[in-house]
Fold this protein.
Amino acid sequence: MGGFNYDRDVYSSSSSSNWGASSYSSSKMSSSHLDSTMEADGKIIKSETQNPIIIVLDVTGSNINFARLVYDKMPMFYGQIEQQGYLKDFDICFCAVGDAYCDYYPLQVGEFAKGIELDSWLEKIVLEGRGGGQGMESYELAAYYLYKTTKFAVGSSPIIFFIGDEKPYPSLNKSQAKRFGITCSKDNIEPFKLLRQKVNNNVFMLLNKYNGDNFEADITSSWQQLLAPEHTILINEEKAVVDLMLGIIAMSSSARTLDSYKIDMLDRGQTQARIAGVSKSLENLSTALVPVKISGTITTTSSSKKSTQKGTRL
């Protein structure tokens, strides 16, 4: 793509394992009241690019640091997509989710943007830091909202990342949906099933350890049932969250295999420990995306479908 500058005075081109520990994001992501442009009610989120990216940040107490990490590393994230050719035409939208049963701002929704303009949207996010403390947040509300309000170009390949550490609520609360301008007339709505169908299954949960301590089996299992199992990506190291998103994009777009993505991480200064941890988290996705040649045909196995076509190896 090109032409959309993303430079900061504090930005380092290095993506070393220590980068992201600065206090820059703390001073910039300090909104205490929701900007009107982040309000969800009545908004349509539209992208005209071929590869729209939506990043949904859990901004409850145990996950605030992820929003700051994403802010700190966004120039690297954006730059790597361009420089490495993972995607040719993309833009990014940031959303934030909390607990609609108790938070003031449980659903915050930005708009698609490119380059340095992304900073202004990230800086509008209110890091509320609340949540209900019962092991569930309103991810299902965010999923249904995105299903209802996103518009993409014909033939595009959107990808949606959720970043958090808890389960969604088991059912969609209709009154909560109505609060944010979306209605549902049916009972037993399955928000993640609908969203996956809309974006060709390109929905990923980057799952943090619960309260930063350990992965809870019931939380992990819940996401594996909602999404394709290989789309539930465990975050073994918090600072690796952007490395994981880049790897998912690189492999899902067929720009890289896991092995060639490891080389990219090495080239941008990541440690062997970081590379090993990221590789472990992405292994199941990598396996699901590997083409398999069978008797002159190619069966492409992905997490969304299997297709067989004649020809040479993809």
The chain is about 35% helix and 20% strand.
